[in-house]
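Explain this fold:

***
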Amino acid sequence: MKAWFKLFVVLCLLLISHVAEATLTLDGNNSASFSTVTITTVDNNDLIIVFLASTNATGCTGIGDQAGLTWINRVAAQNNSVNGNVVSEWYAISSGTLSADVITPTGCPVTPRIVALGVNGANLTCPYDTNASLPGLAANSGTLNPITTTISTTNPNTFVVQFVRVPGSGTPIFTTPTGYTAMVSAGGAAASYYKILSSPETSVTEGVNWGGSGQGSNPALIVDAINDVTAGCGVTSPYNPPMLFRPF
């Protein structure tokens, strides 16, 4: 067998192996309705995402954790009330596994609801799908139910995640959106869900419906999509941090 053909076969096998390893998976998930949350992961090189919900107009101003990760604020959404509901998304990159890592939001005017999750197989250079519709945000000062937003994804393989917060005097009972898997609930008034796509979606209405006593009010929603390792960085959405370009 000619040397060039052997090299070709080796390169093909490496490519197949790379694609096989590009699977997006949930690697740890926890929630809390008090001042800290812990997360444990089993894989290296995870994207760690934290969603926060606060019933005060200013929201939380930062995040710290025992592992010393560097946290970046992705986005925040607020309903129209003067002292209304604020939801925000934060992320960090963990090169190693986490063992009961304590994550602590800072600068919070009230005790927040917290959801933490790890995503393995993400593109850690440019973690988020760069479609301009992302992250999808929705917030309302009334009792709009369901709360929805319309998003599109550009890359074929994405991990789509939703976080919803419905404060108020009632106890909402959330319905898991079609195609999604429920994650650990952050108390009775907040919930999170995920799905893994193998092809882009275009102008899809995403959101959450709820019932229960009192039904709650002032809902706020974030929907976002995480790239897998095979995705290119492309042009950023208005919410993405500056891209890091890698030399050939």
